[in-house]
Write a structure and sequence with these properties.
13 helices
Length: about 280
Amino acid sequence: LTEDMSQVLRANVHLVPDSSLYTSETGMRHRTAERVAKQTKATVISISERRSTVTLFIDNFKYVLKDSREILAKSNQALQTLEKYKKRLDQVSGNLSTLEYEDLVTLLDVVIVLQRSLMVEKVAVEIENYISELGEEGRLLQMQLDELMANVAEESMVLIRDYVINKKDSISVKENLLELSNDEILDLLTIAKHLGYGGGVNILDQKMNPRGFRVLRRIPRLPYSVIDKIVKRFGDLQTILNANHRELDTVDGVGRARAEIIQDNLRKFKESTLMDRYV
């Protein structure tokens, strides 16, 4: 096939790879497939009707596609797990929002939300792999996954920007956190260290002052460039919340109309968040 798999270049070709290349396969078809993959560095698909298997060979990598019924069962189970994790993430995220408005956030509150977000994103990656293997049969699963994962990655990114020691490292911090093992994610101090906070268990009680990225991101049609300027001008969320529309108007890119919209939205967010918490 062509590299973009849009055209068949040649069919029924008898492939004769270098026989000196090592192969762990026993069947002639699979031995040839593995050697061709190693020799050409191309993706080779070997199909066995007798064993009802499809095997992918890419250089030294081998992967046997699982039965679609087995994949569907695993993906549905993973989706149920994701729904539970997402529900818990929404709970701790809502709790953090309340604490931010009340200026009572500790590092522990932040790390718990980030931990839950990482757990959700990890499960989502696993489901994505199942969907890739299912092909067309995974279309409905993809729709469910997209709905559950809406804004999750973005939320965790602005959370990191709000609380990381050096916000210039936000992207690399997120990448490093996603590379943590499941056991490492369960360790709250490990997550705290990636944010730049060292020390023992007592460090988790440290009071935090969010910069305001997370709350400002919720305002409709407010560009990230303007959010950056607002945070740079006022420094933290509490100062932003206490700023009047004239002070907001002094920020480049805001203007009087947008300043009033920002102030109005922040007031509504605070009222609705506190009401959800205590009513």
